[in-house]
């Protein structure tokens, strides 16, 4: 048997009878308990934060959907206006009538485009503000929970 093997066997032979002091055991158990408690708090905060950010994200997607719906509605209305104007122009009996219908259509579309742009800008501003407030509120809540748990 070589020297290293003998020393290792002697060490383990002596160690099998060694006792861990009760103070060390108590400290270890207390440490594990505190770590488990801290982990539980942080895990709970993490789950709450995930839910808060999920709700904020859902709100942001809802805002984006409302903008998309508005754009689609405007596009449909504008397409219908083009078809109505094209039908009216196609039925024109004289060149002056055709010019008058075309001019009226263009003037009306400028008004409509202005109103649609204004509505879309207002909606976009509202959605952006709500989204910012949602994420700001979520971040604030998250940091407050982390402070409490810490």
Comma- or semicolon-separated keywords:
mainly alpha, 150 residues, rod-shaped
Write the layout of secondary structure elements.
Layout: H1 3-15, H2 22-90, H3 95-149
Helix pairs in contact: 2-3
Mean pLDDT: 88
| Helix-strand string | HHH
Total count of helical runs of at least 4 residues: 3
Count the strands?
0
Helix content: over 70%
Strand content: under 5%
Radius of gyration: 37 Å
End-to-end gap: 55 Å
Largest sheet: none
Q: In terms of per-residue confidence, which ranges show pLDDT below 50 for 5 or more consecutive residues?
A: none
Q: Specify the structural class.
A: mainly alpha
Folded structure, characterized:
- The protein has 150 residues and is an all-alpha fold.
- It is built from three helices and no strands.
- α2 (22-90) runs antiparallel to α3.
- The longest helix is centred in the middle third of the chain and has 69 residues, at 22-90.
Task: Give the gist of this structure.
With 150 residues, the chain is mainly α. The chain has three helices and no strands.
